[in-house]
C-alpha cells in the first residue's frame, strides 16, 4: 500500500469529525426518503437494489465500529446483501450509525492511527474517519439517485471525501470495491467537485 500523504492528513485533521457527521446524516436522510415500492429499484452501485445498498452501507459501518472496539460487526456479509430486511430499513441504518458514532467518539483527537476494515489496515485517524464517511455518503448518493431524491453531496463535503479517496481507493479497485475512473464528458456542471468525486469512484454524475 502507498504511504498516505502527510499534507492530506493535516488538511483533514480539523474536519474529519464533521465530515463523518454530515455523511451519516446524508445516509439516514436518503434511506428515509425511500418510498414504498422503491426498495427493489436498480442503483448506480453495481447490480444491487436499493435495499441491498442499504444493507451494504449499514454493514460497512458496523465493520468500522468493530475495528474500533464497539460491537461484533455485521451479522451478514456486506458484500453479499440479501435484499431483504427484517423491519424498517431506517432502523437498520440508524442502529449501525449510532454504533459507529459511539465507536468514533472513543477516539481522542491526538490518536495518530486507528484500525480499519479496509485492506490497508491501520490508517491515520483523519483519513480513516473520512473514508468511513465516504462509504456512508457515496451510498447515500446511490440510494438518492435510485429513488429520485436530491444528491446529498455538496461541494465542501465532496472535496474532503475526494482528498481521502485519492489516497486510498486505487488499491481497492482490484477487489471490485470501486469501478474504474470515468472520464469527464466536458459538459458544464454546477457541482464540479462532487462530479469529480463520483467519476473517481466509478460513477456517472447525474
From TrEMBL:
Q: Which stretch is the leader sequence?
A: none
- Could you tell me which residue ranges the Mycothiol-dependent maleylpyruvate isomerase metal-binding domain spans? 22-144
Q: Which domain of life is it from?
A: Bacteria
Record's protein name: TIGR03086 family metal-binding protein
Species of origin = Nonomuraea salmonea
- What taxonomic classification does the UniProt entry list for its organism? Bacteria, Bacillati, Actinomycetota, Actinomycetes, Streptosporangiales
Amino acid at each position: 500500500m502507498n504511504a498516505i500523504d502527510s499534507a492530506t492528513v493535516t488538511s483533514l485533521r480539523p474536519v474529519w469529525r464533521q465530515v463523518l457527521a454530515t455523511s451519516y446524516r446524508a445516509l439516514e436522510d436518503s434511506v428515509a426518503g425511500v418510498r414504498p415500492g422503491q426498495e427493489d429499484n436498480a442503483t448506480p452501485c453495481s447490480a444491487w437494489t436499493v435495499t441491498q445498498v442499504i444493507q451494504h452501507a449499514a454493514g460497512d459501518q458496523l465493520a468500522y465500529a468493530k475495528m474500533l472496539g464497539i460491537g461484533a460487526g455485521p451479522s451478514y456479509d456486506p458484500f453479499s446483501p440479501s435484499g431483504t430486511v427484517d423491519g424498517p430499513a431506517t432502523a437498520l441504518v440508524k442502529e449501525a450509525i449510532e454504533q459507529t458514532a459511539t465507536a468514533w467518539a472513543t477516539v481522542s483527537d491526538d490518536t495518530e492511527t486507528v484500525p480499519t476494515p479496509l485492506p490497508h489496515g491501520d490508517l491515520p485517524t483523519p483519513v480513516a474517519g473520512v473514508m468511513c464517511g465516504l462509504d456512508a455518503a457515496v451510498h447515500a448518493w446511490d440510494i438518492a439517485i435510485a429513488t429520485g431524491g436530491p444528491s446529498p453531496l455538496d461541494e465542501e463535503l465532496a472535496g474532503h471525501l475526494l482528498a481521502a479517496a485519492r489516497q486510498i481507493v486505487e488499491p481497492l479497485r482490484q477487489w471490485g470495491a470501486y469501478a474504474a475512473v470515468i472520464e469527464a464528458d466536458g459538459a458544464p456542471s454546477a457541482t464540479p467537485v462532487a462530479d469529480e468525486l463520483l467519476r473517481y469512484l466509478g460513477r456517472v454524475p447525474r
